[in-house]
Amino acid sequence: MDRKGIIFVVSAPSGAGKTSLCREVAKLVPNLQYSISYTTRSPRPGETHGKDYFFVDEATFRNMIDKNDFIEWAEVHGNLYGTSRELLMDWVNRGIDVVLDIDSQGAMTIKKKYNDGVYVYILPPSFEVLRQRLVDRKSDSADEISRRLQKAREEIWNYRQYYYLIVNSEFHKALKELEAVMIAERIKMKQMNLSWIEETFIKHLSKEI
Ligand code: 5GP
């Protein structure tokens, strides 16, 4: 059925497992695209330009802000992150659902513009688990970890603005829940092109009678 793509916005404090969940769900659910953001942060080991992020320098990013290229952008942990308006709208207009793995500042900017988006918040089972995950990730310095934990406390304040809450204590359970949200949202009546039902069933019914 032809319809616009649904925008799924997923936020969580850093270390809650959000990126892995979003990437996995995009592999599981057909016709779902993971949105690749622009960032001024340096790539972590194993990250690739154009797959994990578009890694750009600050001048390039600021130039894109001036040209209104971002549908939303935010400063997170001292780096700039943004979602390309053109990429996102191209998928949505082609009827492809998109999952945005972005922080709550960006999520709230999108929410003001697109009330039809689906907002999902992911939490770790406890603050201690969050700290441990950031330490185990071994990709950030001690300073960076304490900055991320401080940001996590602020970030969690926004959870009430979201429509779904998933606690990631067990990855596969959380993944199933995220998949379930996406599948259920797709079959909501408001997402359907109802003219198909009218054509196939209702008109037919009146002819029979
Ligand atoms: P990381 O550096 O760990 O990949 O991401 C740091 C934070 O920035 C995460 O909360 C991530 O979701 C968020 N983020 C990634 N891309 C974007 C974006 O395009 N916009 C916004 N607002 N946040 C983003």
Walk me through the structure:
By secondary structure, the chain is of the alpha/beta class. It has a single domain, classed as 3-Layer(aba) Sandwich (Rossmann fold), CATH 3.40.50. Helices cover 45% and strands 20% of the residues. The protein has a five-stranded parallel β-sheet, with helices on both faces. Bound molecules: guanosine-5'-monophosphate (5GP). Residues 5-183 form the Guanylate kinase-like domain.
Summarize this, please?
Its EC number is 2.7.4.8. With 209 residues, the protein is an alpha/beta fold. The chain has 8 helices and 9 strands.
Describe the protein's topology.
Blueprint (H helix, E strand, L loop, with lengths): L6 E5 L6 H11 L3 E3 L2 E3 L13 E3 L2 H9 L3 E7 L2 E6 H9 L3 E5 L2 H10 L4 E6 L3 H10 L5 H15 L7 E4 L3 H16 L8 H14 L1
Helix pairs in contact: 1-7, 5-6
What key phrases describe this protein's structure?
binds guanosine-5'-monophosphate; globular; alpha/beta; Rossmann fold; 45% helix; single chain
